[in-house]
Every structure is written in structure tokens, then in C-alpha cells.
Amino acid sequence: MAEPALLPAAQMERLAPAPLASPCPRIPRARVARRCAQRWADRGCSSGPSSGRMNQFPQKNPLQPRPAGCSHSRLSSAESSSMDGFWMEVERIQQRDELREEDSGGNEGQLPEEGEAESQWLQDTGLLGLLGGLGLDSDHKELLSTLTQTQVAAVCRRLDIYARSVRRQHKTPARDVRDVFGVLNSAKMSSENGDSGMKGTQLSSGASKSPPAAEPGGPQEQAGREEAFNMDSAYSEQAAVLLQKSRPSQGGTSAWGKCSLPKFTIPKGRLGVTRIGDLSLQDMRKVPSLALIELTALCDVLGLDLKRSKAGKWKAAETRLFGVPLDSLLEADHKVLPSTQVPLVLQALLSCLEKRGLDTEGILRVPGSQARVKGLEQKLERDFYAGLFSWDEVHHNDASDLLKRFIRKLPTPLLTAEYLPAFAVVPNIPDLKQRLQVLHLLILILPEPNRNALKALLEFLRKVVAREQHNKMTLWNVSTVMAPNLFLHHGRPPKLPKGKEKQLAEGAAEVVRIMVHYQDLLWTVASFLVAQVRKLNDSSSRRPQLCDAGLKTWLRRMHADRDKAGDSLEATPKVAKIQVVWPIKDPLKVPLTPSTKVAHVLRQFTEHLSTGSKGQEGSEDMNSLLLHHRPMESANILLYEVGGNINEHRLDPDAYLLDLYRANPHGEWVLKQSPT
To answer: In the Cβ-directed half-sphere of 252, how many Cα atoms lie within 13 Å?
Structure first.
């Protein structure tokens, strides 16, 4: 799957407006923040405490106060840890009376009825068929066969909860979980997971009383350390092992995690690292259900309740840009630019801000003119798709207000109504690495339009932070300003008990801070999930699934005569045959040794492009074709894994060919030009 396509450079040239002479106005900070915090608290509590847990931040395990000596930047400790940006942003949202402009269906954020959540969970994970009938179909068997012990325990727990709710409601008896997994396995998993769940609850609920002590050396020394972020084994299995050892993992506790962010690196295994854009759409569609099962298993081990809320029902918007669902926007955008995966209006807003606003002091924090912003919104609605809207006279502060308004006016939150409560739970996890694991799985669960739009937004926010010396916007400043726009949908304060407003604000800002800082890590598909996708594909079909119809003419089975005895070293070929997406007589041949990497194949092919060497079979054909392909850049040539137990997989240059062969002996390797 290709990376989200952005507008071509030529189409974006007119987005760069002339710099304005007038400096950005300054606004008072502390006084406005204190007044709006009290007003927001009064509004948020006027309706009384919430009746459910998932339409508010959990009350257990409150966030630890920020250490007094913690500094996020060169600013003073008091200013850097201030929540003024959050409260002022809430004040501006409410001053615009956006709440009155929207007509809610009234059920967003409500908890589902008993048993309904488990039924919806089973549907989203592809296991809804387990609720009825006596036999398992092949799809269920294939999915269940890929699960780890903690994941099986999570499925068992949901089936048990659903069965109990059905019995209480006197409905048709639900099938027993033992019918699915067997008596021995079910009892064993329930016992193991019950112990882990109990320990996880103790860790979570006890974190506020006695957080794990940081290692000697203090936060600054910890921040300079590099730590491995293991993606080879399931996160829930890692958490269960840590709990069995009765000690928390080091490297990110609530005692210092909010004041310093260590560097995490993903250890590259022999198969390399897989990014979200490296997998085909067919394979990526399998990832969310697997990630949801793993997220549930991980939260079970940690003792976190992740019952999701219902999505609200909203009236169809009478507009074309603001207040329109992301998938509807993309449907309209595809008529203009078929390859786009991020709404064009969002791309235009981000491009406008990148060209003129990155060096503006207080960008995103300093508001624009309310009258101008409303006028610009109306002009965009009328003229954007006609190509008549000019960005040359748009003030950068007005553009930042338009960006935040676009996010707030989405019919459903960018982080989705269903999983927004799950994002809100993240700050309650004491260990920073486990927070990242939960966030990583939540990113993978998001619908593709939401995930692509969030990626574009986070990349822009990182650019803002990178220009901190000029715009005076630290990572914490950016996080506090953007958090209300992502977590307070339509500016509505959630129903919170009195005294929980500060916890809401700090938690939301902390989640945004982590997402901006660790975004490269979050847009990686964990190796254990890729392995599960391979197992699913291998179970469902042994036939090669080619990436597109155009390649079928040129791709040939390179392992058709392979000895099916198979994975032994004697059966491994000594030469790898690499197909090229051109009518070349023979494939490229590369020695298949334990040290041969994908990068070696790319380097060898690049030499052919540059020299046209005749030292290999088929080079005459290649030389004749190169005359017609001179514009091709060697940097755009990539190696893909196609067929076998994967649909299409763009390979990491550091992956080893021999290990790839053993992981997918029925697949092919194809050299072709990157679509982006």
C-alpha cells in the first residue's frame, strides 16, 4: 500500500501567500486561563456525574503530578508545565458557540447495553460467528490458529461475558467457550489470564500510591538513553512475562515519564521493519482485527477496562468541506486526484501553514480573527473545488484556526467516537513503553481515512516543534493547544465528577505529546502482527496472490520445482531469481547466502541502470530497455515480496533474503518502481 498521496508541487505553488508585515498579536495568558478553567469546570459538571466509565477518563489511577524540576524546553519549569494553552483553547472554542451549531443524535459517548459491547467486539474481530452454531467455519479456525495464549484468553473472556449477559436476559442460550477452544485449553488460559489480570489490576490501581522508582541518574540521564522497543513478540505476552517476574519494566514510569521522553529504537530482525505503507490493502485489512484482539489482551493483563462507547448519529451535512465525514471528502477528492488518501482541503491547510506559519511566534496558539475565519470557511465551501479560492491573502493565524475548526467539525472525532475513550485511558498506564504499545495498537485499529489524516496532522505538528527557536512553540505547548481539538469533540466538555478537569486536560495533552514525539514508531506494523497475517494467508489459500493484473504477464513462479520437503538447508536454492516488471528475457540472479540483503539486490540492479553491464544473462535485453527508461531514478526502485503467504510487501533494505525465503518459500521477489 502506498503512502498517502499529497498534492503535486505544482498544484501547491499557489498556496504560498505573501508574508504579512504586521506581527502576531500577543494575548494575556494566566488570567484568561484561570477564568476559562473555572467556567469549563462549571459547564462540565453542571449535568452531573457520568453514568458510564467510557464517556469520561477513568477515575482510578489518577495521573501523577508533574515533577517540579521537570522542564520541557528552555522555558522556565512553571511555564513549560503550564496548562494555560489547553484552557485558553477551550475558552476560544466555547466563545464561538460551536456547540449550538451542531445537532447531536444524543447518544455519542453512551455505554452499550450489557452484552452488546462483547457482541460488537466479536464482530469487529471477525469472530461473531462464534456466538451461534456448533461448528467452527474455516475462517474462524484460521484466525484462532494465529492467536497467542493471552489473545486466546481475551477471546474466552468476551465469550464468557456475553454468555452470562444472555443468561441474565433469558435469551437463547449462548454456546459455551469450551465448545470453541476445548475444556483443557480454556481452563488453562482462563487460569493464566486470571492471574495476570489480577496482577495487572494491582499494578494499575497501585501506581498512584507508590509509582516505581526511577533508576539512579535522574530524568535527564534517563532521557539520553536508547531503549529497545521489541515488536517481535506480542505486547500482551511481554506484559505477562513482566508481571510474572513481579517487577515493572524500566524506562518510562509516571515518576519521570512526563518530564522526559527517552529514545526508543526498533531492533531490526532478519526480516526487517514493516511500515504501514509497506503492506498491500488486502493485508492491511487483516491487521485491525488482529490489533484489536491484541489490544484487548494487553489491557486485560494490565487491568484496564476498554469498553468502548457508541458512535453518535449525526445529520447529513449541507456543506462540502467542513462537517463532512472523511470518507465522503475522499470520495469527492478522488474525482480531482484519484490517488489521494488525505482530504485535499486538509492538505491545503497544512501546506499553507508550512510555507508561511512555521516561523511565526505562537503559531497554533495565537488565534485569528473570528469574522475572517467564518468568511474564509464560506469561501472555501463555495470555491475550493472550483479552483477559485486563493490562499495568498490568508493570514497564517486564520489558517491555523481553520485547521482546528476542520478537525472539530468532523461528524465523528478524528480518533473515532468508539476508541476516543481508549486513547483517554493511555495516561493511566504507569509504564511509558506500555503506553506506547497501547497507542500503537490503537493507531492500527483506526479506519484508514482517519489514520492517514492523523498521520498528516502529526507530521505537521512535528515540523512546528522542530522550529521551536523561531515560533516559541515547544512540544508541550503544541500538545496542550491541540489536545482540546482532538479530545473535546465539537467543543463539548465531557461529563466529569468535580475535580477531574485537570486530570482530563493533562491526560489529553500527554497523549498528543507522545503521538507527536513517537509518530515514526506508531506507524510501524509490529513483526508479530505481520507473522499473524502470513499465517492467515497461508491457511486460507496456497495459491499465489499477485499484487495487480498488470504483473501477471511478467511474473513467473520461481519455486515451482522446489523440493516440498522444504525448509531444510539442502532444499534452499543457492541463487535467488528476482523478477523485474519489464519484458526482460531472464530474471535478475543474486547469490542467496546468509549475508545477502535486499540492499544488495537494489545495488546490483542500480549498477545495471548506470553501466548497462553485459556480464549477465539477459543484459542485452536490459540494455535495449534502458534506452526507453532513462528517466527512471534508481532511488525509486524497490524490491517487493509477492504471493505465497503475503499479497504484496515492500521489503526493508536491511532484510535478509535467506530469512525471507524461509518465511515465505512460495513467494516471489519483484523489482519495480515505487508508485510514489
So the answer is: 21
Q: Is the dihedral of CA 343, 345, 347, 349 positive or negative?
A: negative
CA 406/CA 411 separation, integer angstroms:
10
Q: How far is the C-alpha of 226 from the C-alpha of 207, rounded, in Å? A: 24
Listed by start position, the domains of the chain span: 28-207+224-314+412-540, 316-396, 543-673
Asked whether residue 58 carries a pLDDT value surpassing 80, the answer given is no
Residues 416-468: pLDDT tens digits?
A: 988 988 898 899 899 999 999 999 999 999 999 999 999 999 999 999 999 99
* Cβ-based neighbours of 192, under 8 Å, separated by 6 or more: 149, 153, 240
For domain 543-673, which CATH number applies: 3.40.50.2000, 3.30.70.20, 3.40.630.10, 3.10.20.90? Answer: 3.10.20.90
Among left, alpha and beta (phi > 0; psi -120 to 50; other), residue 337 is beta
Per-residue buried b or exposed e for 165-198, using 16+ beta carbons within 10 Å of the residue's own CB:
bbeeeeeeebbebebbbeeebbeebbebbeebbe
Question: What does the alpha-carbon distance between residue 240 and residue 87 come to, in Å, rounded to a whole number?
Answer: 39
Nearest to 289 by CA among 494, 470, 591, 533: 533
Q: What are the tens digits of pLDDT across the range 371-390?
A: 999 999 999 999 999 888 88
Model confidence pLDDT, tens digit, residues 457-514: 999 999 999 999 999 999 999 999 999 999 987 666 555 556 677 888 899 999 999 9
CB 284 within 8 A of CB 1: yes
Whole-model pTM: value is: 0.78
Measure the CA–CA gap between 376 and 88, rounded to whole angstroms. 23
Give dist(CA 240, CA 150) in Å, integer.
8
